[in-house]
């Protein structure tokens, strides 16, 4: 009997699997359940889509709020940074005022150097460096801005070293040329620096060198020849041309001007360094180099009188403030604009001093040379302005 029941259950199970033993109302219930499940699934899907849409809206709003907050923070930081600037940095055009003051101070210093008799240029530079160092170094220590500060990159140290070496060579040649040349002619030769800055940029930075650059180089070369008036080219009377010392000093200052043309760019690169730190390290290098120059070439030392000591003090203070004004102006304005303004103002001031103080009128050759060099400088300035405008339009 047990076997019969089991067999019957097996048969019912097989019939159920084959669909032959299922009641009709069972199919109705299954269809109803299936439709209810589908409805629930559709409702769940719609709710899920609505939830996704709400989440997307919330995320978009959050991102907008975040971006708005970041923008507000950036603007606030810029405003705060602008507000925290020192007063002299917020004055429009103050960099040009500084460079004009520096040009006038340097012209006065050149007059003092030219009238200082009996002292050799390296000795003068040694005294000047030590005097300037005597008040710039305590200042640097007092404000905790020492030379070669801790954490300075080796690249910046190398730039400072190069500036010190080239600056010393240019300074020695400059003192010699001031002593033996007319101030206006001497300033014309040193005013050729912007042209050689363009050449250096072409050689080392691979910047473009167009027709205007080439024209400026030619004008500067011809202008310097007219200013110096070498005897091989100009057949002039002995009183109308420079002697050998003046010619050699002119050649030396011309070469050192070419070599030191990168100093303006170096100062601009190191504009974040404090001006006192840059000045102090420069004076240290000048003092060491001047001492070695005197020692190796056996230059006679000079024991100044009290009047000469006061003159040395005035020269040192004047050179210090001239360098200070130049460095500060480069912190505010671009190097090419400062270079143009500096050399233009220096040329005008030098010729005025030459005419009204030394009563030496420039001859026709010097006027032609000055015109050519000045035109070359303004030609480079025009090219710089045009290039800046093209970049802005792009």
Overview of the structural elements:
With 394 residues, this protein is an all-alpha fold. The chain has helices at residues 2-18, 24-84, 94-115, 121-142, 154-180, 183-190, 193-204, 211-228, 244-259, 263-269, 275-297, 306-332, 335-356, 364-393. α3 (94-115) crosses α13 (335-356) and α6 runs antiparallel to α13.
- Please summarize the sheet with the most strands: none
Q: What is the helix/strand order? A: HHHHHHHHHHHHHH
User: Share of helix among residues?
Assistant: over 70%
> How many strand elements?
0
The value of Rg in angstroms is 40 Å
Query: With helices defined by DSSP (H or I, 4 residues minimum), what is the helix count?
Result: 14
Could you give a short description of this structure?
By secondary structure, this protein is mainly alpha-helical. 79% of the residues lie in helices and 0% in strands.
Write the layout of secondary structure elements.
Elements (H helix, E strand, L loop, with lengths): L1 H17 L5 H61 L9 H22 L5 H22 L11 H27 L2 H8 L2 H12 L6 H18 L15 H16 L3 H7 L5 H23 L8 H27 L2 H22 L7 H30 L1
Helix pairs in contact: 3-5, 3-12, 3-13, 4-11, 4-12, 5-9, 5-11, 6-13, 7-8, 8-14, 13-14
Key traits:
14 helices, 394 residues, mainly alpha
């Amino acid at each position: 009997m047990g076997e019969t029941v089991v067999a019957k259950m097996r048969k019912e199970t097989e019939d159920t699997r084959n669909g032959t033993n299922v009641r009709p109302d069972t199919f109705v219930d299954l269809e109803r359940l299936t439709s209810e499940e589908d409805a629930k699934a559709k409702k769940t899907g719609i709710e899920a889509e609505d939830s996704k849409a709400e989440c997307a809206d919330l995320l978009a709003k959050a991102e907008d709020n975040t971006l708005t907050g970041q923008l507000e923070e950036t603007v606030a930081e810029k405003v705060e940074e602008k507000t925290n600037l020192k007063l002299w940095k917020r004055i429009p055009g103050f960099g040009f005022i500084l460079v004009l003051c520096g040009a006038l101070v340097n012209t006065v210093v050149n007059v003092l150097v030219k009238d200082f008799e009996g002292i050799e240029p390296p000795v003068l530079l040694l005294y000047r460096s030590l005097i300037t160092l005597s008040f710039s170094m305590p200042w640097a220590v007092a404000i905790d801005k020492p030379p070669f500060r801790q954490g300075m990159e080796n690249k910046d140290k190398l730039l400072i070293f190069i500036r010190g070496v080239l600056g010393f060579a240019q300074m020695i040649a400059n003192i010699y040329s001031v002593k033996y040349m007319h101030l206006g002619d001497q300033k014309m030769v040193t005013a050729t620096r912007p042209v050689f800055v363009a050449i250096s940029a072409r050689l080392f930075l691979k910047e473009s060198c167009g027709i205007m650059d080439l024209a400026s180089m030619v004008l500067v070369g011809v202008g310097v020849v007219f200013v110096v008036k070498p005897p091989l080219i100009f057949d002039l009377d002995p009183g109308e041309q420079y002697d050998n010392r003046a010619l050699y000093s002119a050649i030396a200052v011309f070469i050192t001007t070419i070599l030191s043309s990168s100093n303006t760019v170096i100062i601009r690169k190191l504009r974040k360094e404090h001006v006192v730190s840059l000045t102090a390290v420069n004076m240290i290098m000048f003092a060491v180099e001047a001492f070695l120059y005197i020692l190796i070439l056996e230059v006679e030392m000079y024991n100044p009188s009290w009047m000469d000591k006061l003159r040395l003090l005035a020269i040192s203070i004047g050179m210090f403030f001239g360098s200070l004004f130049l460095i500060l102006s480069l912190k505010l304005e671009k190097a090419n604009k400062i270079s143009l303004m500096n050399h233009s103002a220096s040329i005008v001031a030098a010729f005025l001093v030459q005419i009204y103080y030394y009563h030496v009128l420039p001859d026709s050759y010097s006027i032609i040379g000055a015109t050519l060099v000045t035109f070359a400088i303004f030609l480079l300035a025009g090219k710089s302005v045009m290039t800046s405008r093209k970049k802005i339009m792009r």
